[in-house]
TrEMBL record:
It comes from the Eukaryota. It holds the Pfam family AAA_33. This is ATP-binding protein. InterPro entries: P-loop_NTPase (IPR027417).
Length: 148
């Protein structure tokens, strides 16, 4: 079975796209999958974090930075897919426009698309986890040991 799965994975590129709210385990699962499958991981948080100096700009720049982060994800993923390399994309994938862009990307690269939606099994613990993140602060961008 594992051999068959490995052969299927190598036939044409695969996009594994994580979907879900913050704190639901997307990043943990994405990192585990990337490590096990040896696929590059394109993490929206990594791209967004690289724009941190720009966050001090006037109000309204958050929307622009979010848009630019997604644009960077699509371009990096597109390059990998057109090279025949499968990718894992870690992002909330919370807007229909992002899903549509992902579907278009898969079609243009001749790639298969698998969307993995992460949901909290215990909503109270999930809310607690998010509140804990807010207390620690969202500006911890480098060296985070855990994030979703």
């Amino acid at each position: 079975m594992a051999k068959e799965l490995g052969e299927e994975i190598t036939k044409k590129p695969l996009i594994i796209a994580m979907k879900g709210h913050p704190g639901t385990g997307k990043s943990t699962l994405a990192h585990a999958l990337a490590s096990a499958l040896k696929f590059p991981l394109v993490d929206k948080d990594d791209i967004r974090d690289s724009t941190f100096p720009l966050h001090q700009q006037p109000q309204g720049s958050d929307t622009l930075l979010n848009h630019l982060s997604y644009e960077a994800i699509w371009r990096v993923a597109s390059t990998q897919l057109h090279l025949g390399i499968s990718v894992i994309i870690d992002s909330p994938l919370s807007h229909r426009t992002h899903l549509d862009r992902l579907i278009s990307l898969a079609a243009s690269a001749g790639a298969r698309l698998l969307i993995v939606e992460c949901r909290p099994s215990d909503e109270a613990k999930w809310r607690e986890r998010l509140e804990g993140r807010e207390r620690v602060g969202t500006s911890q961008t480098l060296g985070r040991s855990f994030r979703s």
